[in-house]
Amino acid sequence: MVVGDLHLGKRSGGIRGNPEEGSTRVTWGRIVDWCIGQGADLLFLTGDIIDRDNRYFEAAGPLKEGFSKLEKAGIKVFMVSGNHDFDVLPQVLQGAGNGNVRLLGKEGKWELAHFEKRGQVIQIAGWSFPRQYVYENPMISFSEISPDPNFPCIGLLHCDAAGGDSKYGPVSVDDFIGRQVSVWALGHIHKAQVLNESGPLVFYPGSPHALSAKENGAHGVVLMTVEADGRTAYEHVPLSPVRFEELRVDITGSSGEDDVRARIIRAAGDDAGKRAGEHPDLLWMVYDVILEGEHRSPREIAGRAGTGIEDYRHESPEGISILFRTLETRVRPVIGDLNKLAEEASPAGKLAETIIALREGRMTPFAGTLLEEWNKINKTLVDSAVYVPVRQEVMNPDAGGDGREYILRECHRLLGELMEQTSASTK
């Protein structure tokens, strides 16, 4: 079983009342129980197990208790430290006294361990953060160890696989190839993702606990089965009691704010029911609501319908507590004949022309200028030091047409406001 950035000592943000289920401590307990229940042989932890040094006392007790339960069940634990727990994790382990737990790669030096069961051997290679910031590529020194090519080897590393000038152990996927390692299990990125499918398998298991709305989707662990010949099967198992999602609600044709509210609540209930089927241990669904579709007065209807939405709480038939965190309107105003409006030599005409072009996948000189400016601003934000940890997920400033989507949405909004102003001035 492979577990990524647990961050013991933290809690999920955006959940009112500070429930116990919002704590990573609860998810750690689930991980331990699930390991024992599934009869796992090994538990791998890929760093940032503890959030940071000032969480020592909050994290040390549950961590030691979990290790003791795993030891009684005969489960071995191998781990590496990350940038958050480079110093505190060795302190916790020093006083734990658990013979089943081993921290690999202390002081930034590669280390190779072995696990044997019924005559089958698995090698585990690991490297730990020696300090909070590591600007050098840790794979450069991998030659310090020599995995035996006759046995499968699993590599554990906390790193930034986006490379570049990261201060969190920058590497590239190519660095993992040709190292006599079957699987690389990584830490640092909280979203589960596979970087290389085979030869070797390279993946981030992600954080097992959903910590914030920026980390939407399922969070959990990865269950791996390693055969004697090195063949590996894996599956992602959701274990987080909390899940954040965007909830898109179409309000086209709505009769008023009561109807919009009813649509939001109905959509949330339907979605929570679907998530319960995928994730049987889910207890909290936290939604950022996005209103879509068309309405004659988008801002007015969204403002009235969204009043007090952050105070809503409802328990679904499946026992999931539903909360709303924010409400955003992307509702288009009912404009009428865009083609006719685009013929006008006016600001409204220019916006209509741009909307038509973007819908059809074309670019006008005006739209091109807007997109160029958007890319410049977005690149400045992405390149900022504040955003270094998320560069892995932002590979291209205009990936997926984000800039075009943003410009199209804003053109709709501005055109709607112009039309509303025009309508009001003629009354």
Give me a quick take on this structure:
The chain has 427 residues and is α/β, with parallel strands linked by helices.
Provide the fold topology.
Elements: E1 2-3, H1 24-38, E2 42-45, H2 56-72, E3 76-79, H3 88-94, E4 101-103, E5 111-117, E6 120-127, E7 153-158, E8 183-187, E9 193-196, E10 201-204, E11 220-226, E12 232-238, E13 242-250, H4 257-278, E14 284-292, E15 294-295, H5 298-305, E16 313-315, E17 321-329, E18 332-333, H6 338-342, H7 347-359, H8 365-383, H9 402-425
Parallel strand pairs: 1-2, 2-3, 3-4, 6-7, 7-8, 8-10, 13-14, 14-17, 15-18
Antiparallel strand pairs: 5-6, 9-10, 11-12, 16-17
Helix pairs in contact: 1-2, 4-5, 7-9
Description:
With 427 residues, this protein is an alpha/beta fold. The chain has three domains: 237 residues, Metallo-dependent phosphatases (Purple Acid Phosphatase, chain A, domain 2, 4-Layer Sandwich), CATH 3.60.21; 94 residues; 90 residues, no CATH class. It is built from nine helices and 18 strands. The strands form five sheets. It has a six-stranded mixed beta sheet, with no helix packed on it. Strands 1-2-3-4 form a four-stranded parallel beta sheet, with helices on one face. The longest helix is centred in the last third of the chain and has 24 residues. It is globular and about 80 Å long. The termini are far apart. 39% of the residues are buried.
